[in-house]
Amino acid sequence: MRKVAARFKVSKNTVQELVKRKREEGTLQPKPAKGGKPSQLSGYEHQIEEMVAEYPDYTLAEYCEYWEEKTGVRLSESAMCRFLQKQQLTVKKNTQEQPRSERNDAK
Predict the structure, then answer these.
(1) 1 near 12, Cβ under 8 Å?
(2) Is residue 53 domain-shared with residue 100, that is, in the same domain?
C-alpha cells in the first residue's frame, strides 16, 4: 500500500479507504453529492411561476426587487437565475437597463 500511495502521491490512508470501499461496495465510483444549502425559494415554485408569467419581460434584477417587495426576502440575481433554471423558467433578455418604474411610465 505504501508503494501504491507513493506512486500516485496520495496518503496511505487514501489507498486503504479505496481498497475498503472496493471490497464493501464493489466499486470505486464517487458517491453522489449530498447536502448543500437549499434555495431560499424552495417551496415557492408556484409563486415564482406566476411571477414570471405575469411579468415575462422583467430582468433578473427586477425579479429580485419584486420578490423582496412581496416577501421581504432579499435575493441575489445569481440565486434567482439558478432557481429559474432549475424550474426551467426562461427569462426574456432585455438589453435596456431601465428600472421597472421607468418602463411602466413610458407606456
Answers:
(1) yes
(2) yes
Read off the pTM: 0.56
At 38-58, the pLDDT tens digits run 888 889 999 999 999 999 889
Within-domain flag for 36: no
Amino acid at 83: F
Task: Name the burial class of residue 67, with classes exposed (0-12), middle (13-18) and buried (19+) by CB atoms within 10 angstroms of its CB.
Answer: buried
One-letter identity of residue 3: K
Which residues neighbour 22 within 8 Å (Cβ) at sequence distance 6 or greater?
Answer: 28
- Residue 62: how many CB atoms within 10 A of its CB? 20
- The CB density around residue 97, as the number of other CB atoms within 10 Å, is 7
Digit-coded pLDDT (tens) for 80-94: 999 999 888 876 655
